[in-house]
Each structure stands twice: as C-alpha cells, then as structure tokens.
Write a structure and sequence with these properties.
Blueprint lengths: L1 E6 L3 H11 L5 E7 L2 H11 L3 E4 L8 H11 L4 E6 L4 H9 L4 E4 L4 H12 L7 H10 L2 H4 L4 H11 L4 H8 L3 H15 L4 H11 L2
Parallel strand pairs: 1-2, 1-3, 3-4, 4-5
C-alpha cells in the first residue's frame, strides 16, 4: 500500500484528490494539509511515501515546503501538482527536491500512475514540464560543469553504476554521488535516465 499525503490550499482540490485515490486499492490517503507549514508537521506525523504538493499556497509555498520536507525526510517522495508549467517553476521545484511535476489538468489515470511511479523512485513529469526541462538543458548549461562532473556524466550515460564509476576513476563512491548531485542540479535533471538523455542531446 502506497501512503499518500495531500497538500493544497483549496479544500475542493484536497477532497477531489482524496476521492480519486480512494478508488484504487494500492493507494491510501494518510493525511491532508492546507499549506506548506502544515505539510512539515503532517509528514512528520504520518510518514507518507508520496506527497502531492501544490505550488501556489499562502505562507510557505510548495517549493519552500518541498525543500524543508526533503531535508528532514529524505525518503519521502514529493510530486508537485499544480496548474503552472513555466520553466522557472519546474526547475525551482525539482531543485528543491521534488521527484516529479504533474499538472492539475492531468487525466486521473496519469495522476495515479505518477503517484505509483514516484513511490518506485521514478520521476513522473507532465509533458509540458518535460518540455520546459528540455528547453532548459541548453549547451550553455554544460559550460558550468566541472571536468569531473562531465567525466562522470559520460560514464552514467554509458550505463555504469556509481560503484564502477568510482573504481574506474579511482575515487570514493560517495564522491561520485556528490559530483552527480551537483551535475544534476546544474543541468536541470533529477535522475540518471534524464541525465543520460541530456548527454545524448547536448554532450557532456
């Protein structure tokens, strides 16, 4: 059973999402919150697997709330659910630690599939959000990468796991993870698959 928390400042949206998630057997709503500040307390209390987080909320917005939740509970997967698909919002949310970005006009099945994908550690992205990311991955972004980050990205694109990358480069596996985290942030991706696609399009 996938435990889901819902954070949205509109009661109708929270109720609608609860109703939708209650129609399937593998998802369970374990709590709701109406703003980012309440989200922090809710996650600490109910330990959800996935949080559906609105962006535009009074007080602590979705980006700030996502960052604080991920820092305090790194195993919790946050999926932004919003009406906004502008590149800056997408990048800010993913940079804050959100694993996925879905839009409120999504089909119900797309939303359910996104929650399940996030629970598996995948990165569900609405098509418009994915397009925004592709536009953000310009070659100029690559110029901000260090030589080591480029080297590691090329090996990731070649399908090597962190342990083999560390062995090949003669560095600690923890160091590989640190470089990858930095590289992912620079090029605007959140997982190895997206990084490999970025390398294929732009080169490292």
């Amino acid at each position: 059973m996938i435990r889901v928390a819902i954070v949205d400042d509109h009661a109708l949206v929270r109720h609608g999402l609860e109703q939708l998630l209650s129609t399937v057997d593998d998802l369970e709503v374990v709590g709701t919150a109406s703003d980012g500040a309440d989200a922090r307390a809710l996650v600490a209390q109910v330990s959800p697997d996935v949080v559906l987080m609105d962006l535009d909320m009074p007080g602590l917005d979705g980006v700030a709330a996502a960052r604080e939740v991920v820092q305090a509970h790194p195993d919790v997967r946050i999926v932004i659910l919003t009406a906004f698909s502008e590149r800056e919002r997408v990048l800010a949310a993913l940079d804050a630690g959100a694993i996925g970005y879905l839009l409120k006009d999504a089909d119900p099945e797309e939303l359910l599939a996104g929650v399940r994908a996030a629970a598996r550690g995948e990165s569900p992205l609405a098509s418009r959000a994915a397009t925004a990311l592709v536009e953000a991955r310009s070659v100029s972004a690559a110029s901000g990468l260090t030589d080591r980050e480029r080297e590691i990205l090329e090996l990731v694109a070649g399908g090597l796991p962190n342990k083999l990358i560390a062995r090949r480069l003669g560095i600690a596996e923890k160091t590989v993870k640190t470089h990858l985290t930095s590289a992912f942030r620079r090029i605007g991706v959140t997982d190895r698959t997206q990084a490999a696609l970025w390398v294929a399009r732009n080169g490292a």
